[in-house]
Specification:
The protein has helices at residues 7-18, 58-68, 91-100, 123-126; strands spanning 30-36, 41-45, 74-81, 106-111, 119-122. It is of the alpha+beta class. It is globular, with a radius of gyration of 14 Å. The chain starts with 6 loop residues before the first helix and ends in a 12-residue tail after the last helix.
Length: 138
């Protein structure tokens, strides 16, 4: 991640967001923290639903909060979960992120108890050749 990004703070924000998760079915609490270009951090958590397909992931919750807050440019994303396996974003989250984020967007992925062992990757690595209907103009 670029030097100007405080990885520890971003991971901490993701872990704090996970504490707000509504996960009565899976028990897996996931949080995301999305760093906007203007320095604001938008948090999101997973919100499960009895009709499991209507569950919303933490990454999309954070991104949608950012868009609703007027942000369209981002510098980094951190995702943290309560489980024992690093919580890689699902395919739907990767595609929604690709709508607004550059493929070079740095992404940190960690288990809450092991934030110091975060996996570092980027959106383009997680979603090569993302689907697009047009060239991005924004």
């Amino acid at each position: 991640m670029p030097e100007q990004i405080d990885e520890r703070a971003l991971l901490g924000a993701a872990a704090a967001a996970a504490a707000e998760a509504y996960a009565p079915y899976s028990g897996l609490r996931v949080g995301a923290a999305l760093l906007a270009e203007d320095g604001r951090v938008f948090r999101g958590c997973n919100v499960e639903n009895a009709s499991y397909g209507l569950t919303v992931c933490a990454e999309r919750t954070a991104l949608l909060a950012a868009v609703a807050g007027g942000s369209r440019a981002f510098r980094g994303l951190a995702v943290a979960a309560s489980g024992a396996t690093p919580p890689y974003p699902c395919g739907a989250c990767r595609q929604v992120l690709a709508e607004f984020c550059d493929p070079a967007l740095p992404i940190l992925i960690a288990c809450i108890g092991r934030l110091d062992r975060a996996v570092r990757t980027d959106l383009g690595t997680l979603l090569p050749r993302a689907f697009a209907l047009r060239e991005k103009t924004e």
